[in-house]
Amino acid sequence: MQSITNTATRYGWATILLHWLIGIIFIGQFALGFIMVRLTSQRTAFELIQLHKSLGFLLLGLIILRIAWRLGNATPPLPPSVGTLERHTAPLAHLALYAFQVALPLSGWALVSVSTLEIPTMPFNLFVMPDLPLTESDAAESFWAAAHWYLAYLGIALVALHVAAALRHHFLLRDSVLTRMITPSSGGE
C-alpha cells in the first residue's frame, strides 16, 4: 500500500501531489501571464487577469502547505551517486525555489493592492480578498509590476534548472532522484 507520508527512501503521496500540482499551476500561470498582457480584447484580458489572480492565491496557499509538509516530514537523502558539490547546492536550489514561490504570488498581491484602479480581487468569485496594507500610487504599481515580472522570469529559470537536474539524474546518472518523485513510498519501506 502506498503511503501518504515520506519514508527514508521515497516521497509519499502528499509530497508528490503537492510537487506536481504546484509545478503545473506555476507553468500554467507563466503561460497565462504571458498571454493575458498581449491580448487586444480588454474583456478577455480582464477575465484572464482575474483567473491569474485566483490561481496565484491558490498557488500561495499550496506552497505554504508544501513548506509546512516539508518541515514536518522526512526527506529521503540523495543517492550515494550524487557528488559532494551537488549535495551542498541541491538544498540551496530547493530553498531558492521555495523562496521565489512565496515571493512571486506575494508580489502579485502587492501589485493589485497598490493599483490605483482599485479593482477588487475575488479568488474564483468566492470572496473578496483584502488588499495588503500598502499605499496606492502609480510609482508603487510600477515597482510591483516590475518585481512581479522579474520574479516570474527568475522562477521560470529556476524551474528549468530544476527540470534539467531531474532529467540529468534520470537519464545520465540513472539514479532514483526523479522516480521517487513519481512513484510514492509504500508503508513497508
UniProtKB/TrEMBL annotation:
Coiled coil: none
Protein name stated in the entry: Cytochrome B
Taxonomic source organism: Rhizobium loti (Mesorhizobium loti)
InterPro entries: Cyt_b561_bac/Ni-Hgenase, Cytochrome_b561_oxidase, Di-haem_cyt_TM
Keyword line: Cell membrane, Electron transport, Heme, Iron, Membrane, Metal-binding, Transmembrane, Transmembrane helix, Transport
Presence of the UniProt keyword Cell wall biogenesis/degradation in the record: no
One term under GO cellular component: plasma membrane
Pfam family, one: Ni_hydr_CYTB
Protein family (similarity comment): Belongs to the cytochrome b561 family.
Listed transmembrane segments: 12-35, 55-72, 92-112, 150-171
Compartment annotation: Cell membrane
Essential cofactor(s): heme b
GO function term, MF aspect, one: electron transfer activity
Location of the Cytochrome b561 bacterial/Ni-hydrogenase domain: 10-183
Membrane topology: Multi-pass membrane protein
Single GO BP term: respiratory electron transport chain
